[in-house]
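Shift notes (night). Ran LacI family DNA-binding transcriptional regulator while the centrifuge was going.
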Amino acid sequence: MSNLVTIKDIARALNISVSTVSRALRDAHDVSLETKSKVEAMATALHYKPNFNAMGLANGKSHNIGIVLPFITNYYFSTVITGIQEAAYNNGYNIVLYVTNDSPERELAIINNLSIANLDGLLISTCCKTGDHLQHLLRNKIPIVFFDRVIEKVETSKVVQDDYNGAFLATSHLVEQGYTKIAHIAGPRNLPLTEKRLTGYLDALKKHCLPIREEWIIASGFSQECGESDAMELLQLAKNMKPNAIFAVNDRKAVGASITLKKQGITIGKEIGIIGFTNDPISCLVSPSISTVAEPAFDIGFISCELLLKHITKKQTPCQEIILPAELIVRESTQRA
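Came back to this:
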């Protein structure tokens, strides 16, 4: 026999009607503060847990939110998920993860096969360049919030780190350390994240009147392996064209670049400086430790989820773009002494 506490048990304990308990738990305006306090206290005493399945049938809500993201195995996205979980669970929502492995084709398949009836909203960090695959969700009034990797032309809320100023900080730091030939190993082109970090890098070079060379800018994936191959491509340039510093789009690529440099017998910092972007724990575990720009990953997850919940509960909430500041962290890889 089930021992699950229901609102009938609360009503019986307080000798009030079931409808009054229901309205009190929903914070209805026609229930007094005194009654609400008694109901909440009794609900706590009886260890009452809302039945979201029943509530969903009554109000058309599933209390599930979907998360579409490229990876769950790296530090940044696992920390974002932690932030999302905290906000979701605090508000009585469950999360459903969908992982694209950074494949636009897989993202398209996931979105096309989503069960709209089982999701109240969607958080997405995209690997696609256009938002055409999301239009049927928007037409069906499914709230969507982008985080980290966004599609700017899609009219939804977005939560991101300050990619432009973070890249500007990183490149300016290299200049201040005395590096004058600075390369950039970028992410895939046409992603807003990639383009903003590229623009921050270029603007910092312009401000300090340093050369910008096309062969010093290499766009590829976000993985450590891409960082290794990008760095090798830079080392194969003519001697007078080789850079003396590398700004990597993320820490994984910075680590890959450092592996290549060490294999070639190059002293990191003294001969070629390296700086990344993320503050992945691996950046301070490798030797030499890698300077970076820290991203507020937990906050991005928490804030994006809270914003999605606003869109779910208040349909008229206007779209917002929230940009969180980045922070420069200096380590051994940019020390020339």
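The mean pLDDT is 91. Residues 62-160+297-324 form a domain with the Rossmann fold fold (CATH 3.40.50.2300).
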